[in-house]
Amino acid sequence: MLDLLKLAAVRSRGNFRWVIVALLFAATLINYMDRQILALLKPDLAKSLHWSEQDYGNIVVAFQAAYAIGQVCFGPIIRWIGTKSSYAVSIIFWSLAAMAHALVRTATGFSAARFALGLGESGNFPTAIQAVTEWFPQRQRSVATGIFNSGSNIGAILAPLVVPWLTLQFGWRTAFVALGTAGFAWLIFWFLLYGAPPPSHPSDRPAAAEKIPWARLLIYRQTWAYVATGILVGPVWWFYLFWLPDFFHKQFGLDLQSFGPPLIAVYSVTAFGSVAGGGLSAWLLRRGWSLNAARKTAALLCACCAVPVAYTPHTGSVWLAAGLFALAAAAHQAWSATMYTVVSDIFPQSGVASVVGLGGTLAAVASMIFSWFVGHVLQNTGSYSKIMVVCALAYLLALGIFHAAVPRLDPVRIPPRRG
Predict the structure, then answer these.
(1) Which of 25, 198, 252, 370 could tie 235 with a disulfide, CB 3.0–4.6 Å?
(2) Residue 418 is assigned to a structural domain of this protein
(3) Shortest CA distance to 32 belongs to which of 136, 151, 142?
(4) Angle at 266 between CA 249 and CA 172, to 5 degrees
(5) CA angle in degrees (0–180, nearest 5) for 63-338-125
(6) In a domain, 99, yes or no
(7) Of 156, 166, 160, 159, the residue nearest 254 (C-alpha)
(8) Per the domain annotation, does 2 fall within a domain?
(9) Which residues lie below 8 Å from residue 248, measured CB to CB, with a gap of 6+?
(10) How far apart are the C-alpha atoms of 338 and 282, rounded to whole Å?
(11) pLDDT tens, per residue, the chain with 419 residues
């Protein structure tokens, strides 16, 4: 009873919202470790299971197809059963799917397991963004988003440490099962700690009185502007996640035992980018900048930092390539933290998850096409040169389109539905 009273007292204070961020961070970390296993094992599994480059591309496409479907579905699911239950459903589904990889051997079997994983994992970001919108005032959301979003990078750092060790000691199947169980441990803390969010902060816009389905959001140019950025930059991040170990394998001859250090270096810097990206626009706001100038200046800096990655196929230095990838991946995470927050800046709370979900869906569709393109290019040329040029320029183009469509970050006024 005493422990329950202490917990209630903590919940009554505003600082408890940072406990929620810690939970979101942990879930995102687990999400990315489960997602990253196959990319790390790809060189070995492709050899032992006789996959072609196009086979692996198709396995990646299966994940992204499911992710696209799931992103559309989770907006309505969150509105239907709430943030707490939606997150639980998501992580149970993806954890079981992660463990199911241990049961298959063929490329078709892996495609099916990846499809199930994509369905479950698609709920992570819409639900986490919704939780941040409910728990945080506007001025703190970019920081909170940056912190939980950095879990993706910490997961990507831990995966090259944990997966090779598990695989070399116990076999690749054990790696999938062991990491898949982590989600069930997280659920215990989620159910114990997550409660009702506090009332809206007085400085924020009031939430819309009705729930807004994503279909009603399609008439607003702000929705499509955000979607366009996801279509352009989303495939780049997927590429870094699913093909970077293969890049180091092909470019420098690294294997499961040796590409861990450069990958860890890449994602260590990337984790900093996620937090710094969210913090930069918040810092500019505290300095008196307008919301529009603060968010877009942060996005512009991110876009510029992505450009040098085009040089990576032309260097013979592992560590120079790792440094350029680190800069570009950090820029992506800072960009994501900024743009996720932009959605909560301009849309009412009840529409945030739907907009993020729609953007994620179409980004996943674009990523499917890009993954097919990557597999096709590698199958025919063996070179990453053209691919890296696309990755380098995507962010500047995305920001240009977004600014042209949304010159000012003014709140979207969505009238109540009649009848």
Answers:
(1) 370
(2) no
(3) 151
(4) 50
(5) 35
(6) yes
(7) 160
(8) no
(9) 254, 259, 262, 263, 318, 321
(10) 10
(11) 445 444 544 444 567 888 999 999 999 999 999 998 999 998 888 888 888 888 998 999 999 899 888 877 877 888 888 889 999 999 999 999 999 999 998 889 999 999 999 999 999 988 998 888 888 887 788 788 878 888 887 888 899 899 999 998 999 999 999 999 999 999 999 999 887 666 655 445 444 445 576 678 888 899 999 999 999 999 998 899 888 988 998 899 888 888 888 988 998 888 777 677 767 888 888 898 998 999 999 999 999 999 999 999 999 999 999 999 999 999 998 898 888 888 888 888 777 777 877 887 788 889 889 988 998 898 888 889 999 999 999 999 999 999 999 999 988 887 766 65
What DSSP designation does 106 have?
Answer: S
Number of domains the chain is built from = 1
**Domain limits at 153?**
10-195+213-405
Angstrom CA distances, 383 to 237, 251, 309, 319, stand at 19, 9, 15, 19
Q: Please give the span between the terminal C-alpha atoms of the chain, in angstroms, as a whole number.
A: 48
From 131, 81, 198, select the one nearest 344 (Cα to Cα): 131
Contacts of residue 384, Cβ cutoff 8 Å, sequence gap at least 6: 247, 250, 251, 312, 313, 377, 378
Q: Looking at residue 168, which CATH number applies to its domain?
A: 1.20.1250.20
Question: And the tokens for 407?
Answer: 């010159």
Q: Per residue, what are the HEC states of 250-268?
A: HHHCCCCCCCHHHHHHHHH
Does the reported pTM lie above 0.85?
no
Q: How far is CA 325 from the centre of its chain?
A: 17
Cβ atoms within 10 Å, residue 416? 8
Longest Cα–Cα distance in the chain: 66
Length of the chain: 419
How far is the C-alpha of 101 from the C-alpha of 265, rounded, in Å?
27
Helix (H, G, I), strand (E, B) or coil at 232: helix
> How far apart, in whole angstroms, are the C-alpha atoms of residue 295 and residue 142?
9
Residue 419 lies in a domain: no
CA dihedral 27, 32, 35, 40 (to 10 degrees): -140
